[in-house]
Amino acid sequence: MTRRQSSGWKGRFAPGAWARPYWRPDSDGKAWFGRGLVQLTHRRNYVTMSKLVGMDLVADPGWLLDLPVSVEVLIEGMRHGTFTGRKLGDYFTARKSDWIGARRIINGTDRAELIAGHGRVFADALG
Predict the structure, then answer these.
(1) Using 50, 70 and 90 to split pLDDT, how confident is the model at 38?
(2) pLDDT tens, position by position, 56-88
(3) % of residues, the chain, pLDDT over 70
(4) Lowest mean pLDDT, pick from 2-11, 87-96, 100-109, 118-127
(5) Which of 122, 26, 78, 74 is nearest to 66 (CA)?
(6) Is a pLDDT exceeding 90 seen at residue 5?
(7) Taking a C-beta distance cutoff of 8 angstroms, is the pair 76, 95 a contact?
(8) 108 and 65 share one domain
């Protein structure tokens, strides 16, 4: 076997490998690729968010493409810490506003300063 055959992302999805590609249809013909404002992936996350928002996103994953549904999933997921275990209340209270740290609610610290700037501008516009 060559290095090319034994490494890289394709090897992770070979029969018996540790990961299942979420974008490929499952036995029900549904693919669990990123949808909505938060780019929700994997069936288990659709199940979790269905319970949280009271809507069967597993029966029809396309509902996440509907803006009001996507906004509700985003807000409730951030409020409850569903995405990373961190939630809005960890970063925003009556005494603190940690705009940069709050990026961890969704996706680590990727582009945290840029997104924090957008958040501050939006919050200022509201208030």
Answers:
(1) very high
(2) 999 999 999 999 999 999 999 999 999 999 999
(3) 84
(4) 2-11
(5) 74
(6) no
(7) no
(8) no
* Residue 7 located in a structural domain: no
pTM for this entry = 0.78
Domain tally, the chain: 2
3-state secondary structure the chain: CCHHHHCCHHHHCCCCCCCCCCCCCCCCCCCCCCECCCCECCHHHHHHHHHHHCCCCCCCHHHHHCHHHHHHHHHHHHHHCCCCCCCHHHCECCCCECCCHHHHHHHCCCCHHHHHHHHHHHHHHHC
Q: Are residues 74 and 20 in the same domain?
A: yes
Q: Residue 23 is part of which domain span?
A: 13-83
Compute the distance between CA of residue 70 and CA of residue 107 in angstroms, rounded to an integer. Answer: 17
Task: Tell me how far CA of residue 118 lies from CA of 11, 100, 113, 114, in angstroms.
Answer: 38, 11, 9, 7
Task: Give the span between the Cα atoms of 97 and 90, in whole angstroms.
Answer: 9
Of 104, 93, 95, 34, the residue nearest 62 (C-alpha): 34
